[in-house]
Amino acid sequence: MADPKILAASTVITMDDGLPRATAVAVAADGTIAAVGDLAACQAALPSAPVTDLGDTVLMPGFVEPHSHPLLSGMSTQSPAHWIAPYVGYPTFADVEALWHQLHADTPAGELLMFNGLDRLLHGCESPTADSLEAYFPGRSVVVADNSGHAIYCTHAYLKALGWDTAPPADPPASHFGRNADGSLNGQAFEVAACMQMAGPALAKSGANPISSTAEWYALMSNNGITSTTEHTYQAAMQPAYEALSRLPSCPLRISLYHVSTEDSCGDEFTSTADPDFLHKNGIKLWADGSPWVGNVALSFPYLDSPATRAAGITLDTGGLAAMNYTKEQLQSVVDEHASKGWQFAVHVNGDLALDVVMDVFNEGLEKAGLKSTDHRWRVEHLGAAQQPQFARLAELDVHPSMSVFQFIYWGDLLDGQMFPSEIGANWVRTGDAVAAGLEPSFHNDGSVSPPLPLLNVHSAITRQTGSGTVRGEAQKMALDAALKAITVVAARAIKREDKVGSITVGKLADFVELTADPYEVDPDHFRDQVDVRGTWVQGEKVDLDAFLNAAGVTDPAEHAHLHSLGRSGGGCC
């Protein structure tokens, strides 16, 4: 319960079209919003409530990240793992190599090392194998996760430790292991199930505290203004961990769960001892195809032959529909089995060919279940290569696009002319076309594929600036208001929580973000430099990340040791 209070700010941007601006918010004892308006109106609603003047702070609804993987992100990027993504301090492969040599020299022999974030395109390196990793880690067990979440690489010593040098496993469904000509493993795994089968034992051996490392990821999201997010790789084994996190003091995040379709219990009802406002199940997650950064994405067009694709070892022709993780019939069977249960489907799809297949599956599934013209809110995730005519069909099917603006931010300079022709690459993540088709997209960062930076997504959407500041695909620009809605009220609708969060509206939960400046009054070209996050509020209380992290740090890791072997069906998904 929150203490009743009134918050006054320089301005309150409500994201509620009925009352777009205010100067005060009244918070009731149950942590809901009792009044919005000026100070007098809020004092009339709560006459005895103390007033906290936030000064020049701009108050907005807490940001909503509608597609993330907090638990696996924390476990794979926080200590004892090493996060080596290009945008967190390792921009070149030479930087990665230097770290690898240093850690091998400084780490006791026999101690396993784990890395996450290697990017073949941005780092300019080929896909590692056990042979190539031997040059950096002779005799050591090492696991390296590709930044895309769709590939894992390991050393010979690690294969031997698993017994896979003499008894290699069979390929799991919709994924595979890299193999030498004689059938032995080459130290590579591709797609979700194979990746987690390879990585799970490393997580178990690392000795990390899953609650503590996940709490660090929660804190990272909170520091960037996020108060609600999802677990898009939910497996039943994660439930105790998410329940434990929700009970820690000053928990900064609300979690909506999307259960992986590869788990038999994906269609089961969800019951929990946690507060349903902090933990609930929304739907079922599927992967239609792979990642543009690995080259296993179902496209109607080939990659360009360029220095970037050659350095990354990307095959120019992905094989079209051969890059699908599932056939249309397999996807259809999952949708048909669970559509009548009321679950929301969320399907990872990057390639334009894959999107056509998914829309065919959705159309047939909605028809069979009698859900057309209902508020089903089925979703498609990422849509990097989606083409202009496809957005009209998404609108016709009333399918929500959760779009990965981060793909354009970090890879845009390579997409335009290095990976694909400019007419495709410059327009990657066609947010402008989505809006023109009558859709309201939400934005996500898909942690840990990219850092959780909602304001950077807004900046790129309104300017079409890549990470280098270069403007590409200006026709895909969005209006500021639409971009801010994509991380607030529209994102809340995407996770079916618009009755609870996403706008500062009477009756909703008092989740806020404090900003340093008014987003509507800054120079759009320098938006990200002028607007920053000061802190967040959840259910009417200022989030205390120190209290949250301290409590997470003293949890008993043994209670959640099973998370290290989640294995077999989860992972990231850019």
Structural class by helix and strand composition: alpha/beta
Shape: globular
Mean pLDDT across all residues, rounded?
A: 94
Radius of gyration: 23 Å
Query: How would you classify the quaternary structure?
Result: single chain
The count of β-strands is 22
Notes on the structure:
The protein is α/β, with parallel strands linked by helices. Helices cover 32% and strands 19% of the residues. The chain contains 21 helices and 22 strands. The longest helix has 18 residues, at 352-369. Mean pLDDT is 94; it is low at 567-572.
List the helices and strands and how they pair.
Blueprint: E1 5-13, E2 21-27, E3 33-37, H1 39-45, E4 51-53, E5 58-61, E6 63-64, H2 70-77, E7 82-83, H3 93-106, E8 113-118, H4 120-123, H5 130-133, E9 142-146, E10 151-154, H6 156-162, E11 176-179, E12 185-190, H7 192-206, H8 210-223, E13 226-234, H9 239-247, E14 254-260, E15 279-287, H10 307-312, H11 328-338, E16 344-349, H12 352-369, E17 379-382, H13 388-397, E18 400-403, H14 405-415, H15 422-425, H16 431-436, E19 442-443, H17 454-463, H18 480-485, H19 489-494, E20 512-515, H20 527-530, E21 533-538, E22 541-542, H21 545-553
Parallel strand pairs: 1-4, 1-5, 6-13, 7-8, 8-9, 13-14, 14-15, 15-16, 16-17, 17-18, 18-19
Antiparallel strand pairs: 1-2, 2-3, 5-20, 9-10, 10-12, 11-12, 20-21, 21-22
Helix pairs in contact: 2-8, 8-21, 11-12, 12-13, 14-17
